[in-house]
Design brief:
This protein is mainly α. It has a single domain (about 25-115), classed as Arc Repressor Mutant, subunit A. It has helices spanning about 5-20, 30-40, 50-55, 60-75, 95-115; strands at about 45-50, 75-80, 85-90. A three-stranded antiparallel sheet has the order 1-3-2. It is extended and about 65 Å long.
């Protein structure tokens, strides 16, 4: 193939790329936050309320109002961190499972640090 033919093939591939791409509808901030919290819960993590404001570039008031709406819906639960007092959110029914995951992660981290010494 000559250089011109290769260039033409590359151009043809680029123009048709957009037709094969699935487009998702634009989500509202509330929907993005909800998906983020669900994903964290499924992966065994809590979501701190303070994280929402800077992750999604919204004010703290907006973050708290979104969290309030999610908690009122009954699909999410909250818990406060014993050390920092910060509010954490997760899906309903997963609070104790995530606490157990956190405990195991801390234990593993402690075990690794004690091995290094």
């Amino acid at each position: 193939m000559t250089a011109k033919m290769q260039e033409r093939d590359m151009y043809a591939k680029k123009t048709h790329k957009r037709f094969f791409k699935k487009r998702e509808p634009n989500l509202t901030t509330e929907q993005k936050v909800e998906r983020f919290i669900r994903r964290n819960s499924q992966n065994g993590f809590f979501t701190k309320v303070s994280t929402i404001s800077y992750k999604f570039d919204v004010s703290e008031d907006t973050a708290w109002s979104v969290v309030g709406e999610l908690l009122c819906s009954g699909l999410f639960e909250s818990i406060h961190d014993m050390h920092s007092g910060e509010m954490k959110i997760c899906e309903s029914g997963k609070t104790y499972a995530i606490l157990d995951f956190e405990r195991k992660r801390k234990y593993e981290k402690y075990k690794e640090q004690s091995k290094r010494k």
